[in-house]
Amino acid sequence: MKKFKFTIRGNEYDVEIKNYEGDIAKIEVNGTEYDVEVHQEVKTTKTPTLVRPRVPVERKDSKIKKSVSSRAYELKAPLPGNIFKILKNVGDEIKKGDTIMIMEAMKMENNIQSEKDGKIVNIKVKEGDAVLQNDVLVEIE
Fold it and tell me: Is the Cβ–Cβ distance between 94 and 114 less than 8 Å?
């Protein structure tokens, strides 16, 4: 394992640690093997232990609150990008396939089209907004 050279009272010793298990080390000193018991002092850490009082947590607020869902259909962003131009307004009647807005994504202009017939109840974005994939853009009733 490891080799050492010791000088004790003018005498040189070649020491090799062969095996170390628990508190017994098998060593070889100048060709003679010995079993040596190793005494280790318990070292205390210098890092202080931080002791804080426990903070009580009230569990009544941890429940998931249900949101009231409207009957409106949510048109979501197909990929991340920026809203370039909005072509329709709240209250406009639209048909399936009508272009509602233009979104710039991956250096291309993408038409965001209606996926169903209906009336626009809410437009959640404005021109210039950055959106992520699956962000709600328009609500259609």
Answer: yes
